């Protein structure tokens, strides 16, 4: 997180669509870099390098009135490569302090949630089930991940559906989903959840799932879209036809194409077909599609986890602009 925040200082860069956007981003980055280096404590050499590159970029923008899109992108990439190490040096102490504060707050909230969960279990006379150690290893079918601990009584969730949208309301908290996705999740639930043949708990479990992902991605529209890229249906069909792929290593009940997949939250996603986290998944045969989120640490862990004897189709995105 610290590295990603530093990479977005002084401004978050995205791939520009038009020449005017590329020119604007170049100007904003130069202005932001100059402001950071002037207001932070840095070495004279770092301040000199950043200021020289910023002034050189401003002079280039004033002279090159007919520059092309690629010229602006190349200039911005060069400017960031020259300035970013010195900007990171200037802002690292503040960013590390903020990340540490976020970590401590998250740790405290996690502790409170554990205490609340323990109280709910106690009130419902539920005791944690401890799995016995495995004495012998054997091959088994790949089933969805289900909780070993029974669930307390689930609350009532009010569902309102229209042709295009469906809302699920618990108390005063409402989550929304397209009706098409609602039917898809209902189908996955029927295929995967064996402890609820009458779908009596479907709406409550769906509300929990949607609330979890809304909290993870953020409540605002289009928030969290840059965490992971999606593949078109034609690619999944081709992978299945050519390589026999039937499993996604990084998906969710909302965006999965195959009925078998790994996801981030086994406790809520398992009712809808998730096999849990990829890093806890050890298949012995099969063909798999891996389209990981944009996290270097997760990608490295994924590669170390893969077995060379299996078939993995890894989707990797090459970002030609604005390398760190």
Write the layout of secondary structure elements.
Elements: H1 2-7, H2 19-39, H3 44-63, H4 69-123, E1 158-161, E2 165-170, E3 173-178, H5 179-192, H6 202-217, H7 233-243, E4 247-248, E5 260-261, H8 266-269, E6 287-290, H9 296-305, E7 311-314
Parallel strand pairs: 4-5, 4-6, 6-7
Antiparallel strand pairs: 1-2, 2-3
Helix pairs in contact: 2-3, 2-4, 3-4
Distance between the termini: 14 Å
Mean pLDDT: 87
Q: How many β-strand stretches? A: 7
> Number of helical segments?
9
Shape type: elongated
How helix-rich are the residues, as a percent range? Answer: 40-55%
Description:
The structure is a single chain. This protein has helices at 2-7, 19-39, 44-63, 69-123, 179-192, 202-217, 233-243, 266-269, 296-305, and strands at residues 158-161, 165-170, 173-178, 247-248, 260-261, 287-290, 311-314. Strands 5-4-6-7 form a 4-stranded parallel beta sheet, with no helix packed on it. With 324 residues, it is α/β, with parallel strands linked by helices. The chain has 9 helices and 7 strands. It starts with a helix and ends in a 10-residue tail after the last strand. α2 (19-39) packs antiparallel against α3. β1 (158-161) and β2 (165-170) form a beta hairpin. Helix content is 48%, strand content 9%.
Keywords:
alpha/beta; 7 strands; 9 helices; single chain
A few lines on this structure:
The protein is built from 9 helices and 7 strands; from the N terminus they run H-H-H-H-E-E-E-H-H-H-E-E-H-E-H-E. It is an alpha/beta fold and 324 residues long.
